[in-house]
Amino acid sequence: MHTPSSSGGHPLNQTDVLIVGSGCSGLYTALNLPRHLKITLITKAGLTENDSYLAQGGICMLRDDSDFDAYFADTLRAGHGENDRSSVTIMIRDSKSIIEDLVGYGVTFARNADGSFCFTREGAHSQNRILFHEDITGREITSHLLTAVQALPNVTLMPHTTLLDIVEDDGTCAGGILLGANGKLSAVAARHTVLACGGIGGLYPHSTNFHHLTGDALAIALHHHVALKNIDYVQIHPTTLYTPNPEERSFLISESVRGEGALLYDKNGRRFVDELLPRDKLTQAIHAQMRKDQTPFVWEDLRPIPARERHAHFPNIIAHCAEHGYDVDRECIPVVPAQHYFMGGVAVNYESATSMPQLYAVGETACNGVHGRNRLASNSLLESLVFARRAARDISVRTEAAPSLHPFNAIDWDHYADSRRLEENNHEQVKLAINRVHARCIA
Ligand SMILES: Cc1cc2nc3c(=O)[nH]c(=O)nc-3n(C[C@H](O)[C@H](O)[C@H](O)COP(=O)(O)OP(=O)(O)OC[C@H]3O[C@@H](n4cnc5c(N)ncnc54)[C@H](O)[C@@H]3O)c2cc1C
């Protein structure tokens, strides 16, 4: 895999598929590629440091055909009708086989006494159709996918390795420029590159996301004129635990807590809103109430959820609140909205291919239009997995048709010498681009 380079003394490696990101979308892409392909999977931080591990509430599934219309309508209603209807149909139709696959990898979901799946509900869902594993569904799913990838001999995992740029050759993606764990630069020639870089929360002072998720794929796409879509569609989650410490990552109080009965109160302990409104509308209502009450948070009361259910379903949220001094059995907790999810991203087709040949984007980094203007709760893990599998299948077909690596032109290594500055510039570029589109849309 390693061949010496004549280019500035920096190593030049070769791989069939370069996957950027070790969240559920990157891992599932790897698992669905043929075993004879060499795969290099890099991640900016540790292998488990990604938002997929943080997902609490669950993952949607079409329970049976009778729920299709309602599930479709709920997704569109949450997305303000701006969803790509074909993407939504693909996601819903594929949900069952994705869940079967996850169970095959050893993922367990809550079940009823008779062994059938136990479904919960979150805001803007008209039916219970969300599978969960306590309040750590993302960890349950992603840790099993990681274990399966680690067992694959054709996959090389490279933690603490950052994609600084892609190598563009004649309008085609030919690989990437990497900053390794040792601080050294290298290049990797790849027949296909998959951006699975997650969201943009690291660009915001208050976000539920890991700080290192800074929209790097967007910056790269901007530089190379790869099409972007809906980049001003940023979701703010209505309920994160309030903390006066701005350095802390905002801790999510999952929507399923409200789905199971938790209530929101103003400063006088009075309800002021329907807790199951779609996220954007509930966020607006909470912000309005905070302004009216002149408080930095509103109160959430978990006690309406029966005690046994509360502790069985949400043990980690309860433990986290306790660590911060709140006993949810006896008192309300302060909650405040924070940046949570990015509905826009690198524009992709139904096979997750971008506008640049040999470049794919999956998961939160990509925008196939499934979420429209606002994501319905628990559609994100599912969408990531459905469209990662489609990317892998498309790559499999195309790799058979084009078996050789694209040649590299000379790389301007000086451009990457000050990688910290380059990354800071990238963050600014992405923020500017998002604000520009936002300003255009509200003008
Ligand atoms: C607190 C929280 C709770 C959530 N709860 C739910 C839920 O209940 N249900 C649901 O459906 N969704 C939920 N979501 C959303 C969901 O978790 C994410 O949208 C989904 O996991 C995204 O997966 P991903 O693979 O696209 O990205 P991630 O899992 O975030 O992975 C991104 C990866 O890209 C890597 N990376 C980024 N930039 C670079 C670079 N330049 N070079 C190399 N590597 C890079 C990162 O290191 C990371 O490995 C939640 C999100 C959060 C934050």
From TrEMBL:
<dbReference type="InterPro" id="IPR003953">
    <property type="entry name" value="FAD-dep_OxRdtase_2_FAD-bd"/>
</dbReference>
<dbReference type="InterPro" id="IPR005288">
    <property type="entry name" value="NadB"/>
</dbReference>
<comment type="similarity">
    <text>Belongs to the FAD-dependent oxidoreductase 2 family. NadB subfamily.</text>
</comment>
<keyword id="KW-0274">FAD</keyword>
<dbReference type="InterPro" id="IPR027477">
    <property type="entry name" value="Succ_DH/fumarate_Rdtase_cat_sf"/>
</dbReference>
<dbReference type="GO" id="GO:0033765">
    <property type="term" value="F:steroid dehydrogenase activity, acting on the CH-CH group of donors"/>
</dbReference>
<keyword id="KW-0662">Pyridine nucleotide biosynthesis</keyword>
<dbReference type="GO" id="GO:0034628">
    <property type="term" value="P:'de novo' NAD+ biosynthetic process from L-aspartate"/>
</dbReference>
<dbReference type="GO" id="GO:0008734">
    <property type="term" value="F:L-aspartate oxidase activity"/>
</dbReference>
<feature type="domain" description="FAD-dependent oxidoreductase 2 FAD-binding">
    <location>
        <begin position="16"/>
        <end position="381"/>
    </location>
</feature>
<keyword id="KW-0560">Oxidoreductase</keyword>
<protein>
    <recommendedName>
        <fullName>L-aspartate oxidase</fullName>
        <ecNumber>1.4.3.16</ecNumber>
    </recommendedName>
</protein>
<comment type="pathway">
    <text>Cofactor biosynthesis; NAD(+) biosynthesis; iminoaspartate from L-aspartate (oxidase route): step 1/1.</text>
</comment>
<dbReference type="InterPro" id="IPR036188">
    <property type="entry name" value="FAD/NAD-bd_sf"/>
</dbReference>
<keyword id="KW-0285">Flavoprotein</keyword>
<dbReference type="Pfam" id="PF00890">
    <property type="entry name" value="FAD_binding_2"/>
</dbReference>
